[in-house]
Design brief:
8 strands; 10 helices; TIM Barrel; binds pyridoxal-5'-phosphate; 8-stranded parallel β-sheet
């Protein structure tokens, strides 16, 4: 497993405006350190306790991305240091993130997760529910969280056309929200989409962040 070679290959595929989050979930800190030593600074984890355990063992300038579904009782583990929460999908979780951000005297950046796949999933918002959240008075009172854009996952399929159309849907949702709610908000700019199997398609459809794991660190058990 040559992490340096894999990382270079992936970085080579990315235009300069696309950021790579190296998804290190289930992988040991030694492998993260190896990627760090090649210059990688953004890493993604999907379990709060795993991320909290790795954080103190690695260089402090790593930007930690939480990419999984976040449960309210786990926010406290990552709130002191998380750089970006990718998959917020309810007012309830936003309230908890805000509460923990206040406790830590900081603001926390996050993305709203949208359900774009044809596949069944419990997670991710539809546009209407997202707008209900954005328009609510409760939401407007959350001053310690900071919305930076949207995130989504395409169906796990060989149907390239389907993947294109799902990513295009997320880009359209981003454009819609941007023009309606955030036309003058420069920091509402991220579209997090694309994994090892589909990131080139995501880039074609407008991704600004791709989340790539197994193509860098090898397959997971
Ligand atoms: C695991 C995971 C990834 C990376 O998946 P790979 O196929 O290993 O690149 C990206 N995004 C999310 C949300 C994940 O859970």
């Amino acid at each position: 497993m040559d992490i340096q070679t894999n990382l270079k290959k992936v970085l080579n595929d990315l235009p300069p405006h696309v950021k790579l989050v190296a998804v290190s979930k289930t992988k040991p800190v030694e492998m993260i350190q190896a990627a760090y030593d090649c210059g990688q600074r953004d890493f993604g984890e999907n379990k709060a306790q795993d991320m909290a355990a790795k954080f103190p063992q690695l260089p402090q300038d790593i930007r930690w991305h939480f990419i999984g579904h976040l449960q309210t009782n786990k926010v406290k583990y990552i709130a002191p240091f998380v750089s970006l929460i990718h998959a917020a999908d309810s007012l309830k979780i936003l309230k908890e993130i805000n509460k923990q951000a206040i406790k830590n005297s900081r603001t926390i950046d996050y993305l709203l997760e949208f359900h774009i796949a044809e596949e069944e999933s419990k997670f991710g918002l539809d546009r209407e529910t997202a707008e209900d959240i954005l328009k609510s008075d409760e939401y407007k009172q959350l001053k310690n969280i900071h919305l930076c854009g949207v995130m989504g996952m395409a169906t796990n399929t060989d149907d390239v056309g389907l993947i294109h159309s799902e990513f295009r849907k997320l880009k359209e949702t981003f454009d819609y929200l941007k023009s309606k709610y955030f036309p003058d908000t420069a920091c509402f700019k991220e579209i997090s989409m694309g994994m090892s199997g589909d990131y080139p398609i995501a880039i074609e459809e407008g991704a600004t962040i791709v989340r790539v794991g197994s193509k860098i660190f090898g397959t997971r058990n």
